[in-house]
Amino acid sequence: MFWTDATARQLIEARYPDFLVLWDNYRNNINKADALGYFVLYEFGGIYADLDFECFRPLDPVTRKYAAIFPLEPFEHSTFRLKIPFLLNNAIMMTRPRHPFLKFMIDNLMAFQMQMEQFDVAGPCFVTTNFVLYNKLKVDDLYNLSATPDGMSPYFYKGSMDETDENAVYVPNTHFFMNTLSTSGLHEQYFTETCLHLSPDSSTLLKRGCNELRRRKSRDSESHFRFTFTMHHWSETYSPSWTKVEHTYTNIRSIIPASILQIYSELN
């Protein structure tokens, strides 16, 4: 199902009228795009993915075990860009309908509306903060390693709730869904230069980031994408440096057959 500006507002007006003022007063379209994903997934469930994702494998198997799946950005992003141990991303999300984490985020949208940074309003930092609050994590918990890592999940502590619980949020390792680095702003070259100036006094977080970057660069393409379901191409159309002049477009209707393409309508 695809969404336009008009049908997105139609959904909010019809099913979440208390949020319509919030919706109409968002400063930027990216805020609406971010928030829309939470409303849609809470209402219908399923898989949300930005249009700059490429699918390598069917996604059906990954949704059978967990009620909600929120992938991480590459560890280097959180380490070098934000100086935090992990960052959940909202560019691809998978949940059952009426999952309480989606409701939790929806209820907190108003409280974050006036944040200065786009990531904080309704984007990845918003999701990460709400994940921490939802799981009642303390500051010290964010830097604790999991006592029982299984190779499928990152090693950081994610709370006491079993990840297979119907109300839990499963956070998979980045190599499954978001295994590439951003190419704009602070990117691999910046990360590499930062690591060249690493010192014994550098933070443990930064040292871990540099170690992960070295491991990434040492893997060949086949090994790196061996277990990857999706690739994020990081178009980052929300960025001020992104311009339409530099890009070409293909109408979605010329790619998706009319029998499959569905544009949401409350009238249907």
TrEMBL record:
GO biological processes: mannosyl-inositol phosphorylceramide biosynthetic process
One GO MF term: mannosyltransferase activity
InterPro entries: Glycosyltransferase_domain, GlycoTrfase_DXD_sugar-bd_CS, Nucleotide-diphossugar_trans
Pfam families xrefs: Gly_transf_sug
UniProt keyword list: Transferase
GO CC annotation terms, alphabetical: membrane
Name the UniProt record assigns to this protein: Glycosyltransferase
Organism placement in taxonomy: Eukaryota, Metazoa, Spiralia, Lophotrochozoa, Mollusca
